[in-house]
Amino acid sequence: MNIDNNGLEIDSLNNTLDRYEEALKPKFGKDFFIHPEGIIDNIAASCSIMNMMLQEEIAKLAKEFDPETASGEYQDALYERIGLYRLEGKRTTFSCKIHGVPNQEYSARTITIRSLSDKNEFTNQNDFTTDSDGKALVRFQCVVEGAITVKNTDKFNIIAAPNGIISMSLPEDIQLNTGREEESDIEFRERFKNAKTTNAKSTRNAVFENLSKYVDHRSYLKLHASNSDANLLAGQIKIIAHPNTTDNIFAHAIFDTIVDGLETLGNTSVTVYDSEGIPVEIKFQKATEIAIDIAAEIKIKSGYYSNTVANRAKENILEYLKEHVFGLGSTIYATEFIIPILETDGIEAVQNIKVRRNNTASEFLDNISLEEDEIPAFSTEKICLTMKNRSS
């Protein structure tokens, strides 16, 4: 085995056997050579093979302990040391209208539908109950991970369903969330190169990766520099964030990440000190939380307690928001909240759903757009569900 600045090179079996021959000639004579019949020859051959196996194992470990060439679980372990984690695979989900027996309860994963175009199969994610007309808006999830796309013009067959399910159809807005494969070694390595070390100070991607662990979601962080924002001068950087830590800790993270001499901009200022005790002012734009009001009219099914159902619907909205995060500068569409409301047991219909900034002077709208340094804040207190007459 040869190790130098160019890396590691494994010897061939022939070279290893040649060295054994040279080492044994002083004892057995100058004309000694290894052949398959003798005891000494077989011992030398076995040792050569064991030597080769050891070299291959060393070469494998050298590859897997190098972050530029590591793969699989070795890559995961190395990158986790700098706060990078492999992106997990996700399954495509979309909403579907199910038609069946009125006021009937159905369990999760009991209905399977298959696409006629690509043969992908989907099952219902959650329990649901049909309304008095036998209809329900149900969330379906693909049985496999991957970037599988569904359009409202696609055709499906029901291939498995409990008694009472009659048919299915796709709504105009299917509320598609496209899945993805688990991040490959190549993709993971490329993301690692954007942030080679915790204190990488070169690229915008490196800065983003280093600061992303100080926010609860990547959409809570934005960076602007002169090469991407004409309003900034060369040597300026504006970091917009909703940190999950104190201003002081986040400012130190910025200081440890950006190159020396960059001027930081923003509405929050923190003084940090370099290794020589010299004060440095670090600024960043701290995002403002904007409380969002949600208002809708709901119809409660007969036999259900209105307040109980309404409270569950509010909780379902907040659960939905854990997976559907609105980041900096989001546009919030009121219709997006219809899904978690309709998935609430006891809800028959949702009408006139609107949203607004939590301000009595503003009106409810179909959608609202936040500023780049604003994120929405939701709470049950800001959700108003007005009861309509129950169905008979």
Short description:
With 392 residues, the protein is an alpha+beta fold. The chain has helices at 13-28, 39-64, 72-80, 185-193, 204-212, 247-257, 306-323, 338-342; strands at residues 2-4, 7-9, 93-100, 105-106, 112-115, 121-124, 128-129, 135-142, 156-160, 165-169, 221-225, 236-241, 263-265, 268-273, 279-286, 288-300, 331-333, 347-357, 367-369, 374-377, 383-388. It has a 6-stranded antiparallel β-sheet with strand order 9-5-6-8-3-10, with no helix packed on it.
What does this protein structure show overall?
It is flat, with a radius of gyration of 31 Å. The model is unreliable at 197-202 (pLDDT under 50). The protein is α+β, with helices and mostly antiparallel strands and 392 residues long. The protein is built from 8 helices and 21 strands.
Instruction: Give the helix proportion (percent range).
Output: 25-40%
Shape: flat
Strand line-up across the major sheet: 9-5-6-8-3-10
Largest sheet: 6 strands, antiparallel
Structural class based on helices, strands and sheet pairing: alpha+beta
